[in-house]
Design a protein that fits this description.
The complex is a heterodimer of chains A (405) and B (189). Chain A is an alpha+beta fold and 405 residues long. Chain A has two domains: 328 residues, no CATH class; 51 residues, no CATH class. A four-stranded mixed sheet of chain A has the order 1-2-4-3, with helices on both faces. The longest helix of chain A has 44 residues. In chain B, 80% of the residues lie in helices and 0% in strands. Chain B has seven helices and no strands. Chain B is mainly alpha-helical and 189 residues long. In chain B, helix 1 packs antiparallel against helix 2 and helix 2 packs antiparallel against helix 3. Chain B has a domain of 92 residues. Classes of the chains: A alpha+beta (405), B mainly alpha (189). Chains A and B meet through helix 3 of A and helix 1, helix 5 and helix 7 of B.
């Protein structure tokens, strides 16, 4: 419904076109320096791209799901998850119910796939499913449905195929040039009557072979990060409750278990970077996801209003940036939209295992022995206050309520 | 001279394309409003179907407050009776049903055996899901109406909307019942 994120789509298209230009330039230079025929090189490069794209378009989602080890579920298997997906399907105005998958993995993550809005799938790890309460699950699922609705899945698939093609062609091109280069070069220079021009092309081809995969990768990451922010904005709008996603992201951030069956190609599909290592600030150019703390802060800054315009304002406030993430046209489509009240149902989907409960009780006991003061905040957080802070006012890091220790 | 004709032709073609695009956009927005409206209908019917089952399960427990159950059944019959009535009347009846169900869920908290019953827990999840779906489909309806109305009023698509008689949609549905219902069940243990 709020899919017209037009100017953003335009920016994404520009970035994709840049990657495409890299591919064409690479094909031409390689074709020219290997076989003295630039056009043939371009044709081969595009043919490889087309072929890979066809595979990705029709088989991509099933390949991705089977690589991740996901199993499809029905309503009876997990009514709560199924219900939440259906709620978000309704809120987003999707016509067809996405397929729902569970990945049996203690890691915390989720992703969406599918070539268009009528062939979408949402997958979530069993670890995450156990940790989240209903509001948080809703936020995560809404983020994934946002990816589907904003056509990110298709865009990212096309991009990763483009990137893959560039990598493949550079790799094989360098092999061919190394082993077939001398004889081909001699023949060509004798035919053209002068090696100067050909040598320049050769150098350019070599340079591009090294640089194209790197630049293509950086562009790919830039597109991916941008789409993550947009999916967060969609999630806030669909659920009318940004705190749900924010607190889910908090739980995701505190886990350090990497996803078992993820690889570089599938990373942008996940809700948070599946390779993240704890405590690292992933604010660099080589990340598929924006830093998680920043995403949480943006979501928590949008107080009282969940419209895309409010997200945009929060984005600029947190990032200290002038450029916006959501186009003014899109922002103007939706007026101020109020936040709803939290759900009364705050238990996690499945109770914590006995082991976890026991570990928690033991650690609480140790804290008490050390004279720590325990405060149970209304938001469910348990604050453990060191003796040095007794008698002072303490703010809950989770919800901001004040407590007298 | 020929160049001028080409330019004019180009402009006409672009204008026509824009006209088609805008017209189709308006049609799509109108269909979205209709779909969102029928989605609310589907979810409300689903809730009606859920209630007999719920009442049956709860009735089995002795001393369960009869009035609460009767209120739910009565509200359901009343809501079904307004199926073909106007929006206002209907949302009032459905709101009363929501409130009755909310009260039932509060009362249920006093029956620990009931809370341990698997069958009841499944029904409770179904009911929560349905209540959420109702409020989300109402939200989706309001969103689609807002978008449609914006398209019919903002320049330049309002010109096309005026040409082909796309009328402004009716006002939004008020979410009064969900707010009342969200405030009501504040259970303390």
């Amino acid at each position: 419904m709020w899919e017209q994120i037009r100017s953003n789509r335009l920016r994404s298209i520009v970035l994709v076109a840049m990657m495409g230009a890299f591919l064409i330039a690479l094909g031409w230079l390689l074709g020219y320096s290997i076989a003295a025929n630039g056009i043939a090189g371009v044709v081969i490069a595009l043919a490889v791209y087309g072929l890979l794209n066809l595979v990705a378009y029709f088989q991509g989602d099933s390949i991705l799901l089977s690589v991740a080890g996901a199993r499809k579920i029905k309503r009876e298997d997990h009514p709560r998850l199924y219900n939440v997906v259906e709620e978000m399907k309704i809120a987003s105005g999707l016509e067809k119910m996405p397929d729902v998958y569970i990945i049996d993995d203690p890691a915390l993550n989720a992703f969406a796939t599918g070539r268009d809005i009528n062939h979408a799938s949402v997958a979530i790890t069993s670890g995450l499913l156990q940790k989240l309460n209903r509001d948080e699950l809703q936020g995560v699922i809404a983020h994934e449905i946002g990816h589907v609705k904003n056509r990110d899945v298709l865009l990212m698939a096309m991009c990763s195929v483009l990137l893959g093609t560039i990598v493949i062609i550079s790799y094989y091109g360098s092999r061919i040039m190394m082993f077939g280069g001398t004889s081909g070069g001699n023949r060509r220079s004798s035919r053209s009557g002068g090696g100067g021009g050909a040598a320049i092309v050769m150098v350019a081809a070599l340079l591009l072979m090294i640089l194209a995969p790197i630049f293509a990768q950086l562009i790919y990451f830039a597109i991916s990060r941008r789409r993550e922010y947009l999916a967060d904005a969609s999630s806030a709008l669909y659920t009318r409750y940004p705190e749900g996603l924010a607190s889910a992201l908090e739980k995701l951030a505190s886990s350090s278990v990497p996803v078992k069956n993820a690889n570089q190609a599938t990373a942008p599909m996940y809700i948070v970077n599946p390779f993240k290592s704890r405590g690292l600030k992933m604010n660099d150019l080589t990340s598929t996801h924006p830093p998680i703390q920043e995403r949480i802060r943006i979501l928590r800054t949008m107080a009282g209003n969940v419209s895309p315009a409010a997200y945009d304002q929060a984005f600029r406030q947190v990032k200290g940036a002038k450029s916006s993430i959501i186009s003014p046209q899109t922002a103007s489509l939706v007026g101020a939209v109020g936040i709803r009240a939290p759900s009364t149902d705050t238990t996690p989907l499945e109770p914590a295992t006995e082991q976890v409960t026991r570990a928690r009780e033991v650690s609480d006991l140790m804290y008490k022995l050390d004279n720590y003061h325990v405060i149970d905040c209304d938001c469910g957080t348990r604050l453990k206050v060191p003796p040095a802070l007794h008698g002072k006012t303490i703010r809950c890091p989770h919800c901001g309520r004040s407590h007298q220790a | 001279m020929i160049a001028v004709i080409w330019v004019i032709l180009g402009i006409v073609v672009i204008l026509l394309l824009w006209l088609f695009g805008t017209y189709n956009g308006l049609v799509r927005a109108r269909i979205a409003v209709k779909n969102a409206w029928s989605q609310i209908d589907v979810q409300l019917k689903r809730r009606w179907d859920l209630i007999p089952n719920l009442v049956e399960t709860v009735k089995g427990y002795k001393n369960f407050e009869r009035e609460t159950l009767e209120a739910v059944t009565k509200a359901r019959t009343a809501a079904q009776g307004t199926a073909n009535a106007g929006v206002g009347e209907r949302s009032k009846a459905e709101g009363e049903l929501s409130a009755a169900l909310g009260r039932l869920m509060v009362v249920v908290e006093r029956y620990p055996e009931l809370k341990a019953n698997q069958n009841f827990l499944a029904l409770q999840e179904e009911l929560t899901g349905t209540e959420n779906r109702i409020s989300f489909s109402r939200q989706a309806y309001n969103d689609s109406v807002l978008q449609y109305n914006n398209k019919t009023q903002q320049f330049p698509s309002n010109v096309v909307a005026g040409m082909f008689n796309f009328k402004k949609e009716q006002e939004f549905l008020q979410a009064t019942e969900t707010e009342a219902e969200r405030k009501a069940p504040k259970v303390s243990f």
